Model the fold of this input.
Amino acid sequence: MHTPIIAANWKMHKTVSEAVDFISGLKKEEATFSDRRVIVAPPFTALRPAADALSGSSIGLAAQNMSYAESGAFTGEVSAGMITDAGCTYVIIGHSERRHLFGETNEQINKKLVLAFKEGLKPIFCIGETLQEREADETISLIRQQITEGLINISAGDIDSLIIAYEPVWAIGTGRTATPEQAEEVHRVIKETVQEISDKGGTPTVPVIYGGSVNEQTIESLMNQDNIDGVLVGGASLKLESFLNIIRFRASVLPEGE
Ligand code: 13P
Done:
């Protein structure tokens, strides 16, 4: 069993001061979730102030995206080196909003993954099917394709520091969470597929986290599944109190005085 990974994707929300205030509040509570791996992904503009606010903490910092190019004439893009320089150790790659709103392809996502590993970043590689694909019974083949095309030329050693996020597109921001059993089934296939690609025998080791309308009510039943190693939370991560309640699901360490 992996240490539970609880990641906040703030998408296009929070100014610098809002991000720093949130992080200061989160840091104060850190002793209550020392047995969880907590990651926050603010927008680009807040990354450096967020890194400064996180100093001395073991909460991880992620960028929400990066360029598929290393440097050059790519107006508006931000490179892997720049986000590392801003203090990130993680980067979200291939989020469904990037795929569907901005037309990112598996090929571009693969380039990003290659560059992220080259830079020493830990990617949170997002995959997931649309409702149409699920209804056409294409979920498993689509997921396998996203993984195999996304991980071309990535070494087994690099795959060891990968996190995969399964985010069914139909469950994102819709209030419609995949049932724990639906997510569990796909997570198992994801782990087996990654294990095949990295050509390792034995028990699959890649952590796979679930995203899509996760909240304080659904966290526990999701985390009860064997192959759900954590969550990537959008809307419910924007308020400190609800994010803390998600982090502390089945808390084994209680806040001082409780
Ligand atoms: P919601 O939790 O708002 O559905 O967003 C999920 C997501 O896309 C996290 O990356």
